[in-house]
Amino acid sequence: MTIIAGVVDKDCVYLGTDSLISFGSDYGRCNYSTGKFLDLPTDDLVIASAGAVSYGQIFEEILRQDESTHLLTVEEKYDVQKLARLLYERVRELGVGDSENNKLPDHEGCFLVVSKDANKIWAMDGDYAITEWDTYIALGSGSTVCESVIWAALECDQKPLDALILGLKASIEFTPNCGGKIHIKQVSQTDTSSGTPQPS
């Protein structure tokens, strides 16, 4: 799997990922030059993906085919639930995952979703359930380590971006399935521009 995490600041949200791809339990390579963010036709919506790469690619395909961009406008949890239903239907149609178990709504993929229209993070887990966070959240193999470090850093009055970077670094250091460079994207609610802060 991997590590994806997000932290909410006053007028923006930061999402971060590692860059390790693992092939089964025996082999991994640091290969993602842009982290594990979906390649979307807008910077107003940012989605980070953890777990099986195929789920992220299917999700990306669904969102890139939406010419009217109505799927790319996310303002509340119910908008993300619509995306989850579309993803689940497409995954079942393609037969991705365990063929003996494909009818059950539980797959090895999870996502963090951030929109310029809301100062929060939505998490979509492998069962397609959506949770909403206004502080911080981490998903993937290193999530316990990452969230613990983010919590401690915020308790010690670290800036949210610094807390996120520390959490990601700790996950890479202490979790075997996390590794490589850290990639971070910023989604601001004050304007339509998104940035890419550089970890120090």
Structure description:
The chain is α+β, with helices and mostly antiparallel strands. The chain has a single domain (3-195), classed as Glutamine Phosphoribosylpyrophosphate, subunit 1, domain 1 (4-Layer Sandwich), CATH 3.60.20. The chain has helices spanning 53-64, 77-94, 143-155, 160-174; strands spanning 3-8, 12-17, 20-23, 27-30, 45-51, 109-115, 121-124, 130-133, 136-140, 183-188, 194-195. Helix 1 (53-64) crosses helix 2 and helix 3 (143-155) packs antiparallel against helix 4. The relative contact order is 0.25. The model has no long low-confidence stretch (mean pLDDT 84).
- The name of the CATH topology is Glutamine Phosphoribosylpyrophosphate, subunit 1, domain 1
Integer tally of domains:
1
Question: Overall mean pLDDT score?
Answer: 84
Proportion of beta-strand residues? 25-35%
H/E order of the elements?
Answer: EEEEEHHEEEEHHEE
- Rg estimate, integer Å: 16 Å
Helix content: 25-40%
Reported for the largest beta sheet, the result is: 5 strands, antiparallel
Q: Tell how many strands the DSSP assignment holds.
A: 11
Pick out the low-confidence regions. Answer: none
Task: Using the alpha-carbon principal axes, give the shape.
Answer: globular
The CATH homologous superfamily is termed Aminohydrolase, N-terminal nucleophile (Ntn) domain
For the record, what CATH class applies? Alpha Beta
Instruction: Give the name of the CATH architecture.
Output: 4-Layer Sandwich
Distance between the termini: 24 Å
Structural class: alpha+beta
DSSP helix count? Answer: 4
Strand ordering within the main sheet: 9-1-2-10-11
